[in-house]
Amino acid sequence: MSKRLLVIGGNAAGLSTASQVKRLQPSWEVIVFEKGANISYAPSGVPYFLSGRVADIDDLIELTPNDAVNKRNIDLRLQHEVIAIHPHRKRILVHSSLGEREEAFDFLMIATGSIPLSMGLDLRSHKRVFTLKTLDDGKRIKKSLKDLQPKKVAVIGGGYIGLELLETMKLLGLETHFIHRRDHLARVFEKEVSDKLKEKMVAEGILLKLHTQIHDIKESLDRVIIETQNGRLEYDMVFLGLGVSPANQLAKDAGITLGVKEAIKVNSYLETNWEGIYAGGDCTEAYHLVGEKYVYTPLAPKANKEGFIAGLNISGQRTPFQGIVGTSIVQFFDIGVARTGLTHEEAKENFHPIKYHLTSLTKPSYYPNTERIHSTIVIDKDSGRLLGAQLIGPHDAIKRIDVYATALYNRMTIGDIFHLDLAYAPPFSPVYDPVLLAARIGRKKI
Length: 446
Ligand SMILES: Cc1cc2nc3c(=O)[nH]c(=O)nc-3n(C[C@H](O)[C@H](O)[C@H](O)COP(=O)(O)OP(=O)(O)OC[C@H]3O[C@@H](n4cnc5c(N)ncnc54)[C@H](O)[C@@H]3O)c2cc1C
Prior knowledge:
By secondary structure, the chain is α/β, with parallel strands linked by helices. Helix content is 25%, strand content 28%. It is globular and about 65 Å long.
């Protein structure tokens, strides 16, 4: 019997669910409501559009609305905002230029994503203070960079979007300041990694304003004034890279259960507490397989995979989403930073963790362009199990984080990792790959 699936949100999670259900149940009616004008775009590409490495912002659109409709047979309603969910009656209320209208569903997928944190500022009334989330944000920032011709800018916040914005502004030739309330960058980074990143900032000419508590941000006609405990700072433009919170208002109002950081609570089948209502992506929490608890980790692979798996479940193929191990990677000038698993601090909650650090070569010492990669490894002293790893080094070396992520997923010990048969040839790695070397050292610590 044909069913009706409604999807709220047309990006990674929502579009993945819609496409999957249309693939498996072509006769079902699948309608995607997207409040913006784009679907299926890569927010992760926007910093590269700002720095000019991606020429056209439209290149960040993976699936055009036309293709969604014509090739995937999805009924797409752009600039349609869902303003209420009525779980009892299995209906949603949608607002568009045509007014308000109720739509009935058999299944509902909530994929509303996340909202950038903005220190309580209403950025609609600011012309010089920005967050970066959507393609429209990217266009607005690009235009302002051109119109306002800034010379001195600041980035507030030391997470991965903050790092990307710092790099972008510096590459554009602007005097770039990094404002952060602590000495340590985002808590997800080990101290060793945070210190190396700060060294890199200084080497690239970024001015560090650490231990800086912000009391107020005001905007005048020609500048942004930031009042801090260390006095007043003035900039032409300011970017907030403070992280995101789940876009949960619809779910909250509908009585859908929320979890960590008020992200929507789902079981491993991506079901909420209401039958027929699913959720996935940045608006949901996820189960951390190493920490063995729910966390809020809004990243693209989780969103895409959860959307895909929600689609399988809605279509009748019962499939669990296994969880995450907290893997991420970011470029910062000519180096990259990658992490997976728990930090030493996080691991203390459930384990007896030890942490060690090594610097190794990315290729044999005789080979051209050999560089250094820094690894920080966390293992459980009692069992030898790997708990986390962080890498900082050249771009072509730090995707090795995926070996650690695979080891974490498989609950491997550092001894197991030593026995992995990893590839070797001089242009790619030394005979003891940095991962094997880390394992060789780690075996002696337990
Ligand atoms: C600058 C930047 C860089 C990033 N870089 C990386 C990276 O390198 N690696 C990585 O893994 N992740 C990265 N991310 C995170 C990644 O983009 C997100 O995890 C991913 O986009 C989440 O997908 P989603 O579908 O859950 O949510 P979103 O992409 O937020 O999409 C949600 C959609 O729902 C729509 N919507 C919301 N509410 C409603 C409503 N009521 N009615 C109708 N529509 C609604 C929104 O308009 C939006 O289009 C980055 C994010 C940003 C902003």
